[in-house]
């Protein structure tokens, strides 16, 4: 059997005609596959040692007669291993989403899913004290991957909480539009300068690394969001005014929308 080849086609105007350009991207495809597998393997291998370290650190930190300077050291090690664990888990999730070309689709009751995300967000919101509004304008649900969508959409809500100064206003909405159903999170937070917007979904791209770390971020959240939405044929839209707030939204096309009546 001939080895598989990957081709990319592009149609461009050429004088009065159209020119079809065919690129052979087989090598690029293989390199991309190697990168994906490497990241997935490294993350997987790091999981067990990390779990062991976290377990021992937890036991040691509880010792009552530990000298104070040791205690501080143990606290820092516990925080940093927890951070490493979050990064490894996010990397694993991202590789899994990238590798799975097809995934099982199920009916998702969006009212239930968004209420669940809203309740979790309220717990996280305690130290910020924002007013969070949940606005559900349609009973329509989605045909999709519930676990991945919960992770992606709640990521957007948690980001709105993290990147809005205390006492802000956040609205999470689910509405029917002419193009499908739209999910949106609007905040009146710190906003994003235009030059950063196009790069936000790159892995580890953060505008302010210190702020992201301080709030427990891994820098992988929006990369995960982009991939999960892509699996559902939805694109992440980012509108923002620096210092004035941001709206992260996505429209799910009709073939992924399911009315509750026919679920
Ligand atoms: P992180 O773990 O750093 O939050 P993300 O991938 O979720 O990683 O987001 C990437 C960067 O995008 C963040 O570090 C932050 O600079 C910016 N960002 C994301 N959401 C918002 C928001 N709602 N308002 C302002 N900036 C945001």
Automatic annotation (TrEMBL):
Q: Which domain of life is it from?
A: Bacteria
Membrane-crossing residue ranges in chain numbering:
none
A GO cellular component annotated for this chain's UniProt record is: plasma membrane
Please name the top-level EC class of this enzyme. Answer: transferase
Please provide the record's keywords in A-Z order: ATP-binding, Cell membrane, Kinase, Membrane, Nucleotide-binding, Phosphate transport, Phosphoprotein, Transferase, Transmembrane, Transmembrane helix, Transport, Two-component regulatory system
Question: Where is it located?
Answer: Cell membrane
What GO molecular function annotations does the UniProt record carry, in alphabetical order? ATP binding; phosphoprotein phosphatase activity; phosphorelay sensor kinase activity
Q: Where is the Histidine kinase domain positioned along the sequence?
A: 41-256
Catalytic activity annotation: ATP + protein L-histidine = ADP + protein N-phospho-L-histidine
Biological-process GO terms, alphabetical:
cellular response to phosphate starvation; phosphate ion transport
Write down the EC number.
2.7.13.3
Function summary: Member of the two-component regulatory system PhoR/PhoB involved in the phosphate regulon genes expression. PhoR may function as a membrane-associated protein kinase that phosphorylates PhoB in response to environmental signals.
The molecule here is called: Phosphate regulon sensor protein PhoR
Part of the full-length chain shown: 97 to 359 of 359
């Amino acid at each position: 059997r001939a080895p598989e080849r990957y081709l990319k086609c592009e149609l461009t105007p050429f004088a009065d005609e159209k020119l079809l350009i065919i690129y052979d991207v087989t090598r690029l495809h293989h390199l991309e596959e190697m990168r994906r597998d490497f990241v997935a393997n490294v993350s997987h291998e790091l999981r067990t040692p990390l779990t062991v370290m976290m377990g021992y650190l937890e036991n040691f930190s509880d010792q009552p007669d530990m000298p104070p300077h040791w205690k501080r050291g143990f606290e820092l090690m516990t925080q940093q291993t927890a951070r490493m664990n979050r990064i490894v888990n996010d990397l694993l999730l991202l590789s899994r989403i990238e590798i799975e070309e097809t995934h099982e689709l199920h009916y998702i009751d969006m009212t239930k899913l968004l209420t669940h995300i809203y309740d979790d967000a309220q717990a996280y919101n305690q130290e910020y004290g924002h007013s969070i509004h949940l606005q559900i304008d349609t009973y329509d649900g989605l045909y999709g991957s519930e676990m991945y969508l919960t992770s992606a959409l709640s990521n957007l809500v948690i980001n709105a909480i993290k990147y809005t100064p205390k006492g802000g206003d956040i609205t999470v909405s689910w509405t029917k539009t002419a193009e499908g159903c739209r999910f949106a999170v609007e905040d009146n937070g710190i906003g994003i300068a235009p030059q950063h917007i196009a790069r936000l979904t790159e892995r580890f791209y953060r505008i302010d690394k210190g702020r992201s770390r301080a709030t427990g971020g891994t820098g992988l959240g929006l990369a995960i969001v982009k991939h999960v939405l892509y699996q559902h044929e939805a694109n992440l839209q980012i509108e923002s005014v620096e210092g004035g707030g941001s709206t992260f939204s996505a429209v799910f096309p009709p073939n992924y929308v399911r009315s509750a009546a026919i679920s």
